[in-house]
Design a protein that fits this description.
Layout: H1 10-19, H2 26-43, H3 57-71, E1 79-83, H4 91-97, E2 102-107, H5 110-123, E3 128-131, E4 145-151, H6 156-163, E5 167-178, H7 182-186, E6 193-198, H8 202-207, E7 214-221
Parallel strand pairs: 1-2, 1-4, 2-3, 4-5
Antiparallel strand pairs: 5-7, 6-7
Length: 226
């Protein structure tokens, strides 16, 4: 017997967001749809996301990005970077939902840099796209950042060591992480950081199976806060 894979219903997804108090405008939904199509077109030639995810971009990539956007939505005037941006998750979705935010998309892969440049132009969103390893990106960033976001591209202690030179002393790193993070957090205990663990509620987990075992780790230096 053949099992037909259910088609993800974008309109239903946006209605579910509205039920949760998140209003997706016609312009935003059109940009998200266009963005996902660009990823699929590019992925015929370049591997931007895993092949199985191409038919599940909304639930596996867009929804987690929207979730992070809701965590930082009160920082709409912030200067922010998405490190290891890849295909633009989280940063491009955050920019679509928080247009006022100033954002840098940082990635060391040339193919992903070229995609990010094209995507920002096609979506008419203003992002500073930086082709560099995050450890060397400070020379392209003129002012310290308020926020850095990233998906779990590395252990937390490395993410913090890369982020700290780019952040204001009061700046915050938000890392979307999965799995057992206890050992990673233990390595941060000597760094005098304020650490928060933000776990998605059942609503978000119902929208995206990716968020079932994910949380957002917030890291901020305690320097000057005592």
């Amino acid at each position: 017997m053949f099992h037909v894979k259910p088609v993800f219903d974008n309109n239903k997804f946006f209605c579910q967001l509205l039920d949760h108090g998140i209003n997706v405008t016609a312009e935003q939904s059109a940009k998200i749809d266009h963005y996902c199509e660009l990823i699929k077109i590019w992925s015929k030639r370049k591997n931007l996301v895993s092949r199985p995810d191409l038919d599940r971009l909304m639930e596996r990539h867009v929804a987690p990005s929207i979730y992070v956007s809701q965590i930082i939505k009160n920082d709409s005037g912030a200067r922010m970077a998405d490190i290891g941006s890849g295909a633009g998750f989280l940063g491009i979705i955050i920019k679509i939902f928080i247009p006022q935010i100033s954002i840098c998309l940082i990635d060391s892969s040339r193919k992903k840099y070229l995609f990010l440049v094209e995507a920002c132009e096609a979506l008419n969103i203003d992002c500073n796209v930086i082709h560099e390893r995050v450890e060397k990106a400070s020379r392209f960033i003129s002012q310290p950042l308020d926020l850095i976001v990233c998906r779990g591209v590395a252990p937390l202690h490395l993410l913090w060591s890369w982020s700290k030179p780019l952040l204001k002393k009061t700046g915050t790193l938000y890392a979307l992480k999965g799995g057992n993070i206890d050992q990673e957090i233990e390595k941060l205990e000597k760094l005098d950081l304020s650490i928060s663990i933000i776990k998605p509620d059942g609503y978000w987990s119902s929208l995206s199976d990716v968020l079932n075992d994910k949380c957002v780790i917030s890291l901020r230096s305690n320097y000057g806060r005592k």
